[in-house]
Amino acid sequence: MAVAEERESGAGHCLPKDPEDEAFGSRMRRARLERGWSQDRLIQRMRQAAQQVFGQQLPCDRSMKAMVSRWENNRRVPDMYNGRVLAAALGLSENDLLGGTSRAEASEQ
Questions:
Q1: Do residues 50 and 57 touch, judged by C-beta distance below 8 A?
Q2: I want to staple 49 with a disulfide (CB 3.0 to 4.6 A). Which of 6, 19, 32, 88 is the partner?
Q3: Residue 106: its pLDDT value, please?
Q4: What's the pTM?
Q5: Is the distance from CB of 31 to CB of 97 less than 8 angstroms?
Q6: How far is residue 85's CA from residue 27's CA, in Å, rounded to a whole number?
């Protein structure tokens, strides 16, 4: 099957055509991959952003790796602080990154 046909049929790992239709985790993963970053590199950038922008430290790498994985797999949504750090690390506005995810949803999870 040709790549174009694969995309049309929904096979493979293609993202929705309309970013508004994407779940938070898909938007996050897409933004990370567009930059060519591994999850470890994202965590590194988040650490830098947390320190530079907010003057705070993030938890240990193991804890952060688990958190990033849960976010990308749509098992959790970052809280307000982590959403801000993540957006800063990716160079996006919170609105662009979180999109349709409300703060009420984020605080519940």
A1: yes
A2: 88
A3: 43
A4: 0.70
A5: yes
A6: 15
Note whether 49 and 77 are within 8 A (CB): no
What is the pLDDT averaged over residues 92-98?
88
In this structure, what token pair is assigned to residue 75?
């098992």
Domains annotated on the chain, with CATH: 22-108 (1.10.260.40)
Query: What is the band of 16 on the pLDDT scale with cuts at 50, 70, 90?
Result: very low
Q: Which positions ≥6 away from 82 have C-beta within 8 Å?
A: 67
How distant is the alpha carbon of residue 51 from its chain centre?
19
Whether 103 and 93 have beta carbons less than 8 Å apart is answered as: no
